[in-house]
């Protein structure tokens, strides 16, 4: 039994074995083991609910893998609305022939991150499709969290400071480099990580951002343009305060990308009341010294994002467009 | 704009357009339109949480399509634990080149079923993968429901009657017939449907089954063997009480399948206290006249399922095994 076969997804004895002997080994909790059609949970108050499918290639990359990203990504989406992540579902779509070793590495990675974040994987589904009908493995995770302090995109106010939790574009750069078989001579790693501890640290210090958003597909440009459009606000950014690692800048220059457009998987943007912004920055810097205040909301009209370079020259930071980079997450 | 392009999944302007102009047109509700990273919901008491990925081929089949099945399937999983389905997430993985027409037909189908069942699609995700990296479209739905009366697999008691809500194996037969390009000269349709109204009708009549399970992949055999193993019970079935349509039997005989092993997508098995079984049957028959009492739990040991034919001859109904039929749902 070295590779996943079609019969592992057939709903019969082999699927039962795969679930009981392998999947339950890693996702071990009482709720999952009840084997009901749905998990039964008890949460009081408001809840957050989010979903993401992960199709990243390669499935193992510097700083993470599709398992890690699939758990972190949904944890992060829950955190961004001010929720404490509690429960995840997982749906595997596996290409016939995936090795058990690879699958087990992915399960192990998911289990580790879930445990570190005190999150339980409570329901799941496994499909196997014939060779050539998907690419190794796709993973969907959906998540439920308990709202600690509700944070919504619509609440960004004029004069809010815009902060970022670290340097940008590392995940996108790692993936594009792996994809194009550039030989990375650095130890550049994806920023893929859970943001739960950072968000909880802000809350413990009574910092409640007006809005938060992890800058995944479409990068910083997409988040800020979405915010500008949704709230009809104008955001001014100082280019020099946005940190980009040298290796990332090298890859961007080589391949013609803007770091603002490239995906992050553990870096988030915050809109914060000015009075809280310095304290927030201090807290963010405990996790990544490249965190910084990168700009502010300068008007409650116009729906646009402006980038000012060190010489004072301004340009629009547009919504990313075209085929950025498929299968980044 | 006739086909889905890679750029529709890139996180940039094109994806934004696809979501705002097409997806929001069909999944129109206030929660989704807040465009937060997670939907924010309020539910009191116990909740049910379930997930399924759908990879069925062909994506349009007699009696349904991948959109209908993806909404009904998760609604049904929630109903099976005694929950009223309330909220769904949807994750699309689309192969570059899928036509907008086909995608819109799927969205329309999902929207229709969700509305009929008073279920809101509150969060979603869209990925596009290059041609040849998936097959047209895969859909994950996860769902949240409010527990009305908790129903769990572990509660099946000795002497319970086993009921089924209709004739079996229609979905599996329709898919295998479409797959092998048999020319169906009948109007055989998949049983694909939501079970919400049936379960709610049982509850309204104070019928609370000990357990319920929709007999999808692995069919009736898988459900009953899982129940027998989990509860260490012995189940005796009367073969002649299990209805199979003639066309279904024909397909099974032609292709060497057992109808007990073939998938259903809107037919469920119930374990019911003897005193309630006749009333339950009456209610089930209002929805499908082929509903019947098919057997009973005859022992609280042995973990096995026995099938008795009209001549009184008994055999074990085994767990299905091998490559039943890939991509049935």
UniProtKB/TrEMBL annotation, chains A, B:
Biological processes, Gene Ontology terms: protein maturation
Family to which the UniProt record says this protein belongs: Belongs to the HypE family.
Name of this chain's protein: Hydrogenase expression/formation protein HypE
PurM-like C-terminal domain ranges (all copies): 161-307
Organism: Campylobacter blaseri
Domain named PurM-like N-terminal: residues: 36-146
Xref: InterPro entries: HypE, PurM-like_C_dom, PurM-like_C_sf, PurM-like_N, PurM-like_N_sf
NCBIfam families associated with the record: hypE
